[in-house]
Amino acid sequence: MKSYNGYEFSNDLVVKDMRRLINQTWKLLPMRENNEDWQKQLDSVLIELYGLHKIFGDQLEFLELLTKLEGVVGATDFMIYRASVFSAISLLTDLANTLDVKKS
Predict the structure, then answer these.
(1) Is the pTM of this model over 0.90?
(2) CA 22, CA 19: separation in Å to the nearest integer?
(3) Quick one: how many helices (H) and strands (E) in the chain?
(4) Kind and range of the H or E element at 34?
(5) How many CB atoms lie within 10 A of CB 89?
(6) 19, CA 20 to 30 Å: which among 26, 76, 90, 92?
(7) How far apart are CA 50 and CA 82, in angstroms?
(8) Residue 29: helix, strand or coil by DSSP?
């Protein structure tokens, strides 16, 4: 169980939300390639991650995830952007898998 502002959430529920957030992060790649508003999508992902801070804030991987995604804002080289998004997806997946192993 994970606690957030006095509410208890099962690990399964948090993992489902993390998987949805992973899919939202994947969207960043084709959106940038297609010159769509990827910055708005990134802002949306970051806002949700800031909300997850009380659940994962004490883990180094979570800090790495936030800094990777904050860093892509200024990335002008698409290959650096792409590598950073893939790295962020990997970190998100690892965090979700950590919870998945600890099923409540």
Answers:
(1) no
(2) 5
(3) 6, 2
(4) none
(5) 19
(6) 76
(7) 22
(8) helix
